[in-house]
Each structure stands twice: as C-alpha cells, then as structure tokens.
Design brief:
It is a single chain. The protein has 440 residues and is α/β, with parallel strands linked by helices. The protein is built from 17 helices and twelve strands. The strands form four sheets. It has a four-stranded mixed beta sheet, sandwiched between helices. Strands 6-10-8 form a three-stranded antiparallel beta sheet. It has a three-stranded antiparallel beta sheet with strand order 9-7-11. The protein is globular, with a radius of gyration of 21 Å. The structure holds uracil. The site of uracil has 5 residues, from helix 9.
C-alpha cells in the first residue's frame, strides 16, 4: 500500500481502513512519510473529515508510536484519572483540580502542554515556580504520583511521538483546526498515559478554540465517542470561555490565584470555583469513589475546605524540585513585573462583553505567551483583578491591573484590554458556567 494512494483515497472522500490509517501513523513516526505527505494527509483530513472508526484508528496508531505508561505495577490504592482542557484564557483549573482530586483518593498523572496561541499552558504556569522541574524522568513522575497523589509535568518524548510530528506539520500548514485531528492528537497522549478515566473540559466562547456551542458540542461528542471506543472511559463538560476564567491572567499571576484559591484566602471567583468543583465531581465519580458527580463534588469541596488539597499542592511542588515552603511564601519564589499600572474604563455602564481571545493576546504581547514556538516567556507579566462580565463600572474605575516589563508594554496592553471589553448601558443575561455534560 503506497502512502500516496491512501492520501488519494482520503482526498476523494473515501473512508480509510484501520490498516491504511495504521500505515500512515507508522510512516509519520518512522519517517517513511515525507513532510509533503504528512501535510497532504492532514489537509485531506481537514477537508474530508473522518468517521468515528477512522478517528479511533488514528488515535490508536498515534498512541502505538510510543510507550504506554502502566500504573498497575505500583498497586496504587485508587484509580488513575486525569482532566484535560481544550484551552482558554486564565484557565488555571489544573493547578487546583489535580490536588483536590488527589486529596479525594484519585491518582492524577497530568501531562500538560505549553501555551498555544492566545491560550495559556499549565506547563508555563508551573515553570514560573523557581526550581519546579516540568520535565522529570518517568521514574520520578511515577514516584511523585504514587507518593503525593498527583504530578503535573510536561509532555515527554516517549508518549505518542508521531503526534508531535503530525502536530508540528499541522501548525505550519493551517490544519490545526480539524476536529478529527484534534481528537486523535489529544486522546493519543491521554491513552498513552495509561489512565483509567478522563474528564474533558471543552471550552466554548471567544477565548476558546471552539467559539460556538455547536463546534464545542462536535468536539466534546467526538472526544467522548472516540475515547470510549478506544477503551478510555471519558466524560466531557462544555464550559464557558466567553470571558477570562478567574481574576488573573499570566503565568506567575495565575499561580498566585491558584494558591489563594487552595488556601481559601480572599473570595474564590465563583465561576472558577464552579468549573473546578464540577470537574472534580466528575473525576471522582468516574473513578468510582462517589456514586454521582454531585456526591463527588461534595467530597471535593470538603478536601478543599479542610486544607488537604492545598497541602497536596505544596507537596507536589516540593517533590518536583520547587521550594518546600512554596505555599507559605509563594511570593518569594515567583517573579514580579517592574511596571504595575491600572487599566481603567473610559465610560460608565455595565461590562456587557469581553473578547477573551483579545485579552489573551494582550498577555502574549506583554511577553506572557509566545508569538513563535521557540520564544521565551516572561512569567511575571499579565493581568490581575480582571473585571467580570455584568459588573457595573464608572468612567475611571478599574478594568484590570496590568503587570508589564516596560511602560510602553503596559500602555499597549491597556489599549488592547480596553478594546476587548465592551461597556454598555445594560448588563446582558448570564451564561451558565457549565453549558453541557456529554457522557456515553
Ligand atoms: N491540543 C493537542 O494536544 N492537540 C491538538 O491538536 C490541539 C490541542
């Protein structure tokens, strides 16, 4: 079977067999497919789509290109469950959720990514903590998961390496935004992590890859169908990303918000709290440690409120090379931007809309994200006290606080944030935080 014949079949809209897809995945990994063929395959899938059976085959083929972690040898006293988010602005949920889930008896080996485009990445947030090793060896990763209950690290070279090549090609050939390719890419890595179950947080709105509900539903339904057929029990929540999630955006600043959340300092942002607990409830129920997501949620809330989750976060940071007293003295171990400036409203009214994507781009422009894959990220910059949708504002009142490296950067970010926030005479109706739940 020649790769070009398989690509031709897909180009002409035919369903590929499992064997054909396995050959493509092998060829991506072993280099027998040229760069042009990988790109042509991705573009053919982009235009022609894939059936669920094809998506399952591609997922399995990408997984088979590397190792699959096996947790059975560790005789863990609880299920191995993870959560994955499709990405948003201000999405620091993983930092709180992994320790909450671990405090409830789950084991959470969370392999997370760097920031992509306007969305932040959990890896960049944790890299803001001095000493935290986001790339430990697999033995250390396993040890921390076993002893602490959770470990959040970066992608390793051994899990689904074919996906790395395919993703890099998609990135430069305008084929990232393909639901079959996204589903296979995400799930191949999650299956390779050897999980007993997965909860997907599919973000929907201006700050997300899926900006419409129908697109978010397509992605969530496909993730659930493909994962379950590939043998990974999976539930998806579609959650709102039509505004910044929480109050802070930017790597170190989001760690600060997560630590305050875990320690119960100040007021927890209600929408951040709602999505974190909803996901925790799903994880705990999926792992069989509660009879329903609602019962799981109650357990999660107890573990948060009595400080167990905060304690686990502190232990995870220390076990991965960060400071032993990070929870107590996080400020000492996180960078601080030299310029801190208020961004104020130019008119009075209500915050009626927020283009979360543009807010994310303002943070990238501050240096908090990457314009190019190999750019360095400034962990200290970003926004705090971002105003919520529906809030009443007066001319001159605070929309957010900008943390920047220079005055010029701060000025530019202030202009971008003002343009991203729409103020009108009346507030619009609230959109629920959890928009839909999709299970098999
Ligand atoms: N995240 C991934 O891992 N893969 C995609 O294709 C998109 C987001």
């Amino acid at each position: 079977m020649l790769p070009q014949e398989i690509i031709r079949n897909k180009r002409d809209g035919r369903e590929l067999s499992g064997e054909e897809i396995a050959l493509i995945a092998r060829g991506i990994h072993d280099g027998s497919l040229s760069e042009g063929q990988v790109a042509a395959f991705a573009m053919a899938v982009f235009f022609r789509g894939m059936t669920t059976a094809e998506r399952v085959a591609l997922t399995k083929g990408l997984t088979a290109s590397g190792i699959t972690l096996d947790w059975t040898g560790l005789a863990l006293p609880g299920p191995v469950i993870d959560k994955h988010s499709s990405g948003g602005v201000g999405d620091k949920v993983s930092l709180m959720l992994a320790p909450i889930a671990a405090a409830c008896g789950l084991f959470v080996p969370m392999i997370s990514g760097r920031g992509l485009g306007h969305t932040g990445g959990t890896l960049d947030k944790l890299s803001a903590i001095s000493g935290y090793d986001v790339r430990p060896d697999i033995a250390t990763f396993r040890k921390v998961v076993r002893e602490v209950g959770c470990a959040i690290i970066g992608q390793t070279d051994d899990l689904a390496p074919a996906d790395r090549r395919l993703y890099a090609t998609r990135d430069v050939t305008a084929t990232v935004e393909s639901i079959p390719l996204i589903v296979s890419s995400i799930l191949s890595k999650k299956i390779a992590a050897g999980l007993d179950g997965l909860v997907m947080d599919v973000k929907c709105g201006s700050g997300a890859f899926c900006d419409t509900e129908s697109m978010a539903r397509d992605l969530a339904e496909s993730l659930v169908a493909v994962a379950n057929q590939a043998g990974l029990p999976t539930v998806a929540l579609i959650s709102d990303m039509d505004r910044v999630l929480g109050r802070n955006v930017g790597n170190a600043l989001e760690v600060v918000e997560a630590v305050e959340y875990l320690k119960g300092e100040g007021t927890r942002d209600p929408r951040l709290h709602a999505v974190t607990l909803a996901l925790a409830g799903e994880m705990i129920a999926l792992g069989g440690l509660a009879p329903s997501p609602a019962a799981g949620r109650a357990r999660a809330e107890a573990a948060l409120n009595d400080g167990r989750a905060a304690d686990i976060f502190g232990r995870m940071v220390a076990a991965l090379g960060g400071p032993d007293d990070f929870l107590e003295r996080s400020n000492r171990y996180l960078g601080h931007a030299p310029v801190v400036r208020p961004c104020t409203a130019e008119r009075s009214g209500f915050v009626a809309g927020m283009n979360a994507r543009d807010v994310g781009i303002a943070v990238v422009a501050l240096g908090g994200g990457r314009a190019h894959a190999d750019d360095a990220v400034d962990p200290a910059v970003g926004l705090t006290e971002v105003v919520d949708l529906g809030a009443p504002v007066r001319a001159g009142s605070l929309l957010c606080v900008v943390h920047a490296a220079t005055d010029a950067d701060a000025e530019r970010a202030i202009a971008l944030v003002r343009a991203a926030i729409r103020i009108e005479d009346r507030a619009l109706p609230e959109r629920p935080m959890i928009m839909q739940r999709i299970a098999r």
